[in-house]
Amino acid sequence: MGTVVMYGSVSVDGFIADEDDQPGPLFDWLLSGDVPLDETGALKVSQASFDYTRPYWDQIGVTVVGRHVFDLTDGWDGTPPGGVEHVVVVTHRPMPEGWDPEAPFHFVDGVEAAVTKAQELAGDRIVEVAAGDVGGQVLAAGLVDVVRMDVAPVVLGSGKRYFGSVHAQHLLEDPDVVIQGDRVLHLRYRVRRRPA
């Protein structure tokens, strides 16, 4: 099975968006360089960020998001973002009315079922879980292997937390990746497993 990675851009005070679901300058690093990150050329990053981010993006098989993110993005118009093959949406509601049932989106009730479905779809590729409430729930369930953060040099003060509403302590290993890009610090941590 593929590695489960919780991922997101985050402020230095731990927020992935402000109170109005706006990222503010959290994604400035995606526009601050001169190396195209994808074929559109819209995203341009530093060489250091490209060397770290592009290989990761190429390994993602499935992204898991909550219904809130799905609704905010209008379901990416039925096309998974960033070339990902499938999106698993954690929701208690049915798919939206008029939604194309052939689109590679899977609506699942509960984070455990979502990760199971995502791993089935991803095979040995990475299962990416969006940071925020769903990511925090997946972490709390003990299903996250790796935490990846793109830390932007901004303090938002309040908003949507990277780890959602996690209320228990979770230990991470020392970072195994620390890379400075332009307007970003890329960090990667393995999740420390509790003894069985």
What's the helix and strand layout?
Layout: E1 4-11, E2 15-17, E3 35-36, E4 44-45, H1 47-59, E5 60-66, H2 67-72, E6 86-90, E7 105-108, H3 111-122, E8 126-130, H4 133-140, E9 146-152, E10 160-161, E11 177-181, E12 184-190
Parallel strand pairs: 1-8, 1-9, 5-6, 5-8, 6-7
Antiparallel strand pairs: 2-10, 3-4, 9-12, 11-12
Describe this protein's structure.
The protein is of the alpha/beta class. It has one domain: Dihydrofolate Reductase, subunit A. Helices cover 20% and strands 29% of the residues. It contains four helices and twelve strands. It has helices at residues 47-59, 67-72, 111-122, 133-140, and strands spanning 4-11, 15-17, 35-36, 44-45, 60-66, 86-90, 105-108, 126-130, 146-152, 160-161, 177-181, 184-190. Strands 7-6-5-8-1-9-12-11 form an eight-stranded mixed β-sheet, sandwiched between helices. A two-stranded antiparallel sheet has the order 2-10. The relative contact order is 0.25.
